[in-house]
Amino acid sequence: MNVVEMRGITKCFGSFTANDNINLVVKKGEIHALLGENGAGKSTLMNILFGLYQPEQGKVFIKEKEVAITGPTMANKLGIGMVHQHFMLVQPFTVTENIILGDERASGGRIDYKKAEREVQALSDQYGLQVDPRAVVADIGVGMQQRVEILKTLYRGADILIFDEPTAVLTPQEIEELTEIMRKLVKEGKTIIFITHKLKEIMSTCDRCTVIRRGKMIDTVNISETNENELASLMVGREVSFELDKQPSNPQEPVLKVQSLAVDDNRNNPAVRGLDLEIKAGEIVGIAGVDGNGQSELIEAICGLMKPKSGRIILNNKDVTGLAPRKITETGLGHIPEDRHKRGLVLDFSVSENIILQSYYKKPFSNGFGINYKAVGDYANKLIQEFDVRTPDKDTPARALSGGNQQKAIIAREVDRNPSLLIAAQPTRGLDVGAIEFIHKRLIQHRDTGNAVLLVSLELEEVLKVSDRVAVIYEGKIQGWVDPRTATEEELGLLMAGSKAKGGASQ
Amino acid sequence: MIGKLNRNSTLLSSIISIILGMLVGAIAMLLSGYDPISAYGALFSSVFGSASDMGETLRTITPLIFAGLAVALAFRTGMFNIGVEGQLVIGSLAAAFVGLKLELPPVLHAIVALVVGALAGAIWALIPGLLKAIRGVHEVIVCIMMNWIALFLSNYMVGKVLSNNSDSTEKIHPSASIRVDFLTDMFDGARVHLGLILAILTTIFVYVLLFRTKLGYELRAVGLNPDASEYAGMSVKRNIILSMMISGGIAGLAGAVELLGTSEYLAINPSLPGTGFDGIAVALLGANTPIGVVLSSMLFGGLFNGGSNMQYVAEVPFEVIRIVFAAIILFVAANFVKQLGNRKNRKKKGEKASA
């Protein structure tokens, strides 16, 4: 049976067509992937299914009956539930309180919490979610919170579950567990639509996959009859090489030396605890680790954005410990920040104003007093061209660009200054395959021109692929080094969890 | 292209807000038994009526431009300078001091008085700026307190230092005055003075500062995203302090101009003059752009001046003008008109697409 069928769906926002005559058929009991680059129209399509948008054209059938879904309440009634990427939970409430929120089954104005708790427990047991109905949401981890979101849809009787990029916030282990849960849900007769742009997950979890590109449906394929390369080229519209064209590194003299560095985090708890690190010109050093093991503080201390408590940072043979950010930048540092909206861009500045963010005070952009906006514009146009930043023009606000193009603008700015050390923190987070490919190439190119690159990422695959040497950070220290050509994810996983490396690989 | 569209719609929504605000004023008049048509008639005829009326309108506009620019500049750096009021009072006081106590040749005397007035305002604004930058104290709290300190300091100085226990000072020396005969003659005896020209020069100065200089780039960056500015090696603290000082300097200049051009003496005041608070409204309606500030100052200046005339001619109380003023601000602040427009556009586009 076709549980969901969307026929000829068209949705426009102004002159922009987000969905152009899309067809989607989801069969009962399958995990159906919806694959597409950022901005391809996946979320629009699902928001139509969930009743948040009304399509201009097209029909929706649920369980082979034509319906007009006028809003989320209607969608709930039809058995459609959505697990949002950004959780919609009330932090100080318990799990049960959150689950019944908006669907309180009260009698005479009184809510029977005991009964609600029993129902939540029963649902949790049935699907193996292992959720404690009495736990306070603020006290439970991200993975557990996601299960609460799943329970919310189940409690409302959903049998079609939409998962909106559910793995973006999870650790590898949690992803594994989520996959199990999804399998169990399907076994119990539910149907799942899984929105993602991660190909590995689709290959390992899904039954069929519908690919959307620039608002158009490209194809629906059976996972058993396809592979990652085919999916990627369907999604991007051209061949994508997963193999990086990368020569062996040619390390020269050290560029960065970090010696027994200690840094406290914002709440004055130790985050980096006596860390040592050395990076040489002509190599890419990757730092792998579970989020929150001191990565952010290490980067911010090197860049001068946080004051180290003790230890030394030497950049290009100059002690830069505790210097102001601009002094360090001028010593030869480029930094692609992990949060591009917080640190990387002034979103309401134009693209060209953002491109000079690190060099506006220097010639030819400024003579010390005025700013030569003609020179700025010419330079911005040059970089937009060279780094393929897709923007209507240089005067468009950075806010209006897609994430990938915002990131390209930052990389253009940082790389073009040719810093002897480039720090790339989560450079591809939330980006699609095409943009990731571009950014990896640029990092390697930067290395090949004789500079050092420090890559910090939570994506193991990325760290292993791009780096020449990989350090694992654990509780603010380097736990061990591995050779990315020979290391296995298992080996890395053990180090990330705090066990010592056997035989102590390279350094 | 996008920027242009936005700017146009801001202008359009401002105009609609103004019309709506005047309608609210008309309703208020009807409810209290006045005739809005004759009232607004009196208002407009007095704005554009005679040369002397126009001159008085221009005089009313002058301090609003300064105050609006001061508020807008601080806003751009993320600071809410609600202390323009106090900085203006201090600027007046300092200019009065120079105008009364110093003996200098004509042109020089006025220039010294203006410069000292601006400096006094800048120093008054430095205090909330420093407290914000160094200790993180919210500038609004400090500014409001500084306003009252300024008022009572000025009153004390008028009574004890600048006069002998009188409630006002003598007139300043003619050498310090910025009234000029040709303007007075041109506008048939109205109190319009060189302050108007200074206001226009200050507008150009603020525009160039914000959009053509390195400092302006930094000020705007800090206002829009302090984290990214810090990352780019700018000193957020330094920019906060500078922005407050320049803003305070413009406010101080406003006070000095008012004293040297309009009143020519300083009196004890029971309450704050209110120009600084009007400046907040002016900046808001002008979307924090220099040219917008000038345009909205013209509107509010016209309303104020015409409104006082309305009292005599149509016998409608001046408070009605305050209602109009407040209603316009409310419509602008609530972004009412813009949202209405957006919704209509969306509907239209939807219909077209489905057709």
From TrEMBL, chain A:
SMART domains: AAA. It is a peripheral membrane protein. GO terms for molecular function: ATP binding; ATP hydrolysis activity. Keywords: ATP-binding, Cell membrane, Membrane, Nucleotide-binding, Repeat, Translocase, Transport. One of its GO terms (cellular component) is plasma membrane. Gene3D superfamilies: P-loop containing nucleotide triphosphate hydrolases. Coiled coil: none annotated. Residues 4-239, 256-500 form the ABC transporter domain. Its main location: membrane. InterPro entries: AAA+_ATPase, ABC_carbohydrate_import_ATPase, ABC_transporter-like_ATP-bd, ABC_transporter-like_CS, P-loop_NTPase. CDD domains: ABC_Carb_Monos_I (cd03216), ABC_Carb_Monos_II (cd03215). It is found in: Cell membrane. Belongs to the ABC transporter superfamily. PANTHER family: CARBOHYDRATE TRANSPORT ATP-BINDING PROTEIN MG119-RELATED, GUANOSINE IMPORT ATP-BINDING PROTEIN NUPO. This is Nucleoside ABC transporter ATP-binding protein. It comes from Baia soyae.
UniProtKB/TrEMBL annotation, chain B:
The chain crosses the membrane at residues 12-37, 57-75, 82-100, 106-127, 139-158, 192-210, 280-304, 316-337. Keywords: Cell membrane, Membrane, Transmembrane, Transmembrane helix. It is a multi-pass membrane protein. One of its GO terms (molecular function) is transmembrane transporter activity. InterPro entries: ABC_transp_permease. One of its GO terms (cellular component) is plasma membrane. PANTHER family: ABC TRANSPORTER, PERMEASE PROTEIN (PTHR47089), GUANOSINE ABC TRANSPORTER PERMEASE PROTEIN NUPP (PTHR47089:SF1). This is Nucleoside ABC transporter membrane protein.
